[in-house]
UniProtKB/TrEMBL annotation:
This is ATP-dependent Clp protease adapter protein ClpS. Belongs to the ClpS family. InterPro entries: ClpS, ClpS_core, Ribosomal_bL12_C/ClpS-like. Involved in the modulation of the specificity of the ClpAP-mediated ATP-dependent protein degradation. The keyword Protease applies. It holds the Pfam family ClpS. It comes from the Bacteria. The keyword Acyltransferase does not apply. SUPFAM superfamilies: ClpS-like. Residues 18-95 form the Adaptor protein ClpS core domain. GO terms for molecular function: peptidase activity. Keywords: Hydrolase, Protease. One of its GO terms (biological process) is protein catabolic process.
Amino acid sequence: MADTTVERKTRVKPKVERPKLYKVLLLNDDYTPREFVVMVLRAVFRLSDSQAETVMMTAHQKGSCVVSVYPRDVAETKASEATDLAKEHGYPLLFSTEPEE
């Protein structure tokens, strides 16, 4: 039998990092009705009634509250969608984003 050499090729798998996550914050104001805030949280962020009530009350008592955490583009889109919905109805409700630590 003849000598056969086998060469092995190694594959390099690139490491893909998970995207950094961003928090969507609900900022309290004294003018937007609580019922409207709950409606926005349910419509835009798909929270249940009890979750929306809890987030709204936490923001009301502490000044702000984390609504949810998403990749950056999703977080910014949801925050602007919720803020725009409030503006359409004449309320100063504000959502913002910040990087998660």
